[in-house]
Amino acid sequence: MGIVYRDPKWFRLSSGGLGIQVFNGRCAKMTYRAKTNSILLTILMVLSTTLILPSEEVEAAEVVITEAVRVVDGGPMNERMVSMAADSEGNIHFVWSRNTQHLYYTMLDPRADVDGDGQADPVIDVTQISNPGTHRAWHPDIAVDSMDRVHVTWTDKSSQHAIKYTVLDPNLHPRDGSQADDTVISVVNDMIVSQRQQNRDWPAIAVDSQDNAHIVWEDSFDPLEKFYFQPQIYYSMIEFDGSVGTTAIDDSMLTPVIGHKGHPDIAVDADDYVQVVWDDTRGGKVEMVVPIDTSGSMYSEWADVCTVFYGGSFSSGGYFRGIKPMLEDANITVYETIYAILGYGIPSAGQGNTCSTAYQTGGSGSQGPRATHLGQYPGDDSGGIRKLQNFIFNGASVTGSSGEDWGPSSTWACLSWKDAGGNVPGNPPTASDHKWNPNATKIVIPISDEGPRNGDPAQQSDDTQSINEAHDACVRAGVVPVPMAGSTWGGGTQIQSHMSDLANCPNGVVNTNQRICPGSTIRNTDAGGEVYNFPASGGGGQQMQLLVEAMVYLATNNSREIFMTVLAPHALLDNPSPGWQKGDPATTTTSSAYTEDVGPAMDSQGYGHFVVVNDTRVTLDDAFSFHPAIAIDSQGNTHIAWMDGRGYGFEKNVNYEVLYTRLRLRGAAEWNGVEGGLPSYGIKQIVDTRISDFEGPAGIQQGNPFAPSSYMPAILTDARDNIHITWLENSNSSQGEAIMYARLNHTNDKPAWPLNSIAASVLDPWEPTEVTTWNSDKLGPNSGNAPELSQPPAFANDLGSGAHIAWSDTNKCNDESNSNTYTLCYVHVLTGQVEVGLQEGETFYHVIEPGEDTMYNLSVNNTTPGPPELVADTFSLNLTGVPLNWSATVYFSSNHTTIFPDTPIHLLGGERVEVYMRVIAPSIYQADGDEVANIIVSAVSYKDPAIRSDRLTSTLMDVVHGIQLDTSHTQSDVEQGGTAIFSITITNTGNVYDTFQFYDPNSLEGQQEWLLPYGWGVKFPLSISLEPGASVTKNLEVNIPTTQEPGTWVIFVKGWSMGEPVKSVEKGTYDILELWINVSIRSTGNIVFEIFDTSEEVLPGECAEYVIKVTKFFAPGYLIFTLPGGPDERNTSIPTEIWRQDHWTVTLDFLNAPDYDENTRYEPGIARYWDQTERPYSVTAEVCAPYLADAGLGPAVKVKAYLQGSPKVSD
Question: pTM of the entire structure?
Fold first, then answer.
């Protein structure tokens, strides 16, 4: 148990321990997996503490797999059949089919998910690349050429099936994450490679050193109708000059021999030789048991069934070579036994002519089933025609009497392989059983024109019971029932309905409609067969041709073997034989034959040939072998992986495992195109080896028969000649289906490997690794009953020794369901590791002020497990996320040398180098607010940009914005119309050059913030800029209007930092001064008297009148009049006339004054409201002399008016 320090991401070890790993911007699994999350400041501060977790040491056999990324979010669209390739920069290109209609493309960089949210961040977003219109795009395959252009081939099934070809140039679109335009990036646009009669599918593509495309596919086109439309392997070569695709070698059949071929794959070696691999029924075995009705109505059927098997003339005319001799030429073994269902003897038609040899082989009607299976020795391939007396009905042996018990006969045939007790071979309760060849595909073909139990009438209860029994027995045994309906007697819907119930599943209805067989029970499971009509004499040659095609299909739908061939297209193009021109097929078609151009790459006459290694058998086993994948290493060795049923049985619907072999084609024999190809045992450096875990028949789960199965492998070799294999695994109990990966490390370079070595003796131990961790349907739909369907995972090399894997999934590439809709998932398998770490005592979070710097002490460590020299790598250090006006530089700690992005840092496995990064914050003039510099230090491998480590450092520039306002005095006294002056000192208390703002007193907002009474004016700067710690004093002038009411008023000076959006007194970014202004009434010019003349001459006892114009200024107010120093007031006890004898009198008349009241007209002490300013009102002063006055100057009379409450305001 070791102690592993990692920071800051988690991963899971395959051993179950825990650790932390920074990798690829996402997390990785070392057979471990981690997950990237957005790192908030608080989380970072928590994670900055040291984490110490127990973990087992990582061993060399472990691999690193990044967290799954969702390539595309198609919503309700089904994204399937993805293909993938990587270019010279490590970018990944994806092409897939959306809803099996149009073809789509996207491009990702090596990190795929840059922001770590689980969704891919495309370099080029999802783009439709199939032309507008109706399409049904299937099974795309892609390859990238030397200029990073993407060559695409696919099948368009929208009408007559077509193989199409497109070349995309991603460099014609900006790599900005936007969607491309198909018309712009498609250099070659939907070129039709092949579109002819019959169907075609499963194209594969490879590109040679000259950027030419080589395409192979399976195709049923057979213009000579020699192979009964069984699919063959075709090839075409497209020359590409950078702008135009030209057919260099047209559609060429590579397998001109009868049999079913499929699922080709292609690879081009360093010398531009093309290697093609496929699965093929050649070398396979099929056994047919044919119980035939012996009633009289079946005469013609008896005659013609022998013709079908052995050759001859049909009863209706026409010659047929026969299935057995025809398939023997294709190295396909057909075992057959024809059983005459007794009750009647073997008809004469079954004894002579084409049946004569078979009749004799079966003992001329005297022998029942053989005691041994066919295939005991070479040539032991026919059971002939034999009598069948006993068969099974209702679980017991019954003896035939009608000759028409084809239902019980089928039950007997199936129980003979696997009986009701599960025994293999079976032992049904009959005296004799059929002995099946254990290694052959097994088919039972009952032929009749009447009901399955005792003939007509059909559709009786015993008929139904016999069919149900036969169906269940065949499903359990894995024997495929293929009933054929004769038409001489009964035939028709009732018979064919019985046969459909047997071939597929009973539906309880008399019809010939397609059966729906969900497979939830034995009874409703599809038995895998088909129903055919067996035309009687006179049925016509066309119907007989259909029968022959059906029989050929049955005979060739036997177990598959893996075959391959080697082509030299450039040899043909450079030195063609006379008569061949560029653009012609390499296989010529005459009136009776297909002829391949075979021979050495250069013959003695200087001509080049196309097929230099003819069809070579790779596998030598009777089990089914499907879906081969091929890769070629730097030494020219060929590596093939495929799915194989050996160990589980010889039927198609058994369990499969992934097998691998390594071939050395050079040196095994001369490459001269001879028939038979190279010797199978002479080319195998590593024998067929299981890569997936073999559970065996004992591992088959109850109710889940296909659980221990490994399907559809893909294979790669890397620059170090390691082998990478991925496949779909069904044995995972928690996931149901899992994407798997294994790497076979090449560590043995001995030139003298013995042929047919065991993989374990020359390769490091390997362990299949789960790529996925969730339960979902992957790479579907697929079925164990149809293992030839579906598609392998997309698989591509990276720039190092790793691989890219992609697949379709009904989950969102995690535990979340995608609503049963397929999306695309992607992972990167990495073979190198690097870690950018913090040195001991260092933290990832620093705080500095503007203009300051800080240093991070880091280390770069090659953490790749394995031999130090073998896993050595060179890395570059790059900085990203440096904000504007910041500076960041990395140095070697040992010598303080600057590390530039192009400075190579070579590290052996386990080696570490110490570095430091200096981060400088913006100056006090550049900084205007708090800023976090999240600078990522990335170590990136030279060999593969996906091998990287990202270390996040967070440097907070703590910007302090502060303002302080001061004044020498906070109060001022001023009269109306005066100006109050304050000295205001502004101080920058922050740490950056800052500008401070003040409210504009001329704006409505400013008046409110200053709290200015109406009409007040302020003169003060609106903004002031200061360096940190600096102060400045400015005068604040407050102008008071003359109309202002007297009183005490408060105003506010509010200043704040422009660098801080939040005004906060508590934080110091906002300050407020409170100033008091005492406004008093204006004393000068407030009340003004105007009089025309101030002196008059009067006689004793007369009066003089003085009209005084009284004007109030500034504001209305109450005026009170007095007569200071005037004559004495009359004693009220003395009458006026008496008083005037000796006294002067003064009377003020307020008749024309405002606020007039008759009762107080002559009372000056009454306060009178002067409601209008600057308007003169007349007040008359009447001065009367005494009656007894002496001549001379009279007294001076003063009239005074003052503001009520403010006696100083007067005139």
Answer: 0.70
What is the DSSP track for 793-847?
A: PEEEE-SSS-EEEEEEESBSSSSSB-TT--EEEEEEEES---EEEEPTT--SEEE
Q: What is the mean pLDDT of the chain?
A: 87
Helix, strand, coil % (nearest 5) of the chain?
10, 40, 50
Pair 728, 756: CB distance under 8 Å: no
pLDDT at 827 over 70: yes
Do 189 and 133 touch, CB atoms closer than 8 A? no
Residue 24 to residues 9, 131, 829, 875, Cα–Cα distance (Å):
11, 36, 11, 13
State in Å, rounded, how far the first CA of the chain is from the last one. Answer: 108
d(CA 733, CA 757): 34
DSSP category for residue 610: S
Q: E-strand spans in 195-273? A: 200-207, 213-219, 232-240, 245-253, 261-268
Would you state the structure tokens that stand for residue 46, as one six-digit string? 């928590």
Question: Which of 145, 237, 228, 146 lies closest to 191 in space, CA to CA?
Answer: 237
Rounded Cα–Cα distance for residues 574 and 1139 (Å): 155
Would you identify the CATH topology of the domain 837-952?
A: Immunoglobulin-like (2.60.40)
Give just the sign of the alpha carbon dihedral 1120, 1121, 1124, 1128.
negative
300 with 349: CB under 8 angstroms? Answer: yes
Separation between Cα atoms, residue 954 and residue 957, nearest integer Å: 10
Whose structure tokens read 């739909």? 781
Entry field: residues in the chain: 1211
pLDDT of 413 > 80? The answer is: yes
SS3 1077: strand
Q: Is the dihedral of CA 549, 555, 561, 563 positive or negative?
A: negative
Residue among 381, 380, 401 nearest 390 (CA): 401
Most confident listed range (498-507, 863-872, 1055-1064):
498-507
Q: Is the pLDDT of residue 553 over 90?
A: no
Alpha-carbon distances of 197 from 160, 194, 200, 225, 234, rounded to whole Å: 7, 10, 9, 12, 14
**Is residue 996 predicted with pLDDT exceeding 90?**
yes
Residue at 838: amino acid letter: L
What superfamily would CATH give domain 285-556? von Willebrand factor, type A domain (3.40.50.410)
Which amino acid is it at 338? I
Amino acid at residue number 924: I
| CATH 3.40.1130 holds for 122-282+562-603+619-799 | no
Token pair in block for residue 352: 């002579």
**Residue 749 pLDDT:** 61
Q: Is there a common fold for 837-952 and 963-1080?
A: yes
502 contacts: CB under 8 Å, gap ≥ 6: 407, 410, 446, 452, 467, 470, 471, 474, 481, 483, 527, 529
Distances (CA, A) of 62 to 100, 708, 765: 37, 24, 11
pLDDT recorded at residue 9 = 32
Q: Using one digit for the tens of pLDDT, what is the confidence trace for 857-873? A: 999 999 887 778 878 89
- Whole-number Å distance between alpha carbons of 278 and 174: 39
Region of poorest pLDDT, from 720-729, 745-754, 1168-1177: 745-754
Q: Are 1030 and 924 contacting, i.e. CB atoms less than 8 angstroms apart?
A: no
- Supply 279's token pair: 């699965």
* CATH number, span 1087-1210: 2.60.40
Q: Where are the domains of the chain?
A: 122-282+562-603+619-799, 285-556, 837-952, 963-1080, 1087-1210
Q: What is the predicted pLDDT for the residue at 11? A: 32
- What is the structure's pLDDT at 491? 55
Please tell me the CATH superfamily of domain 963-1080, with its number: Immunoglobulins (2.60.40.10)
> Per-residue pLDDT tens for 1072-1116?
999 998 887 776 777 787 887 777 777 887 888 888 888 878 778
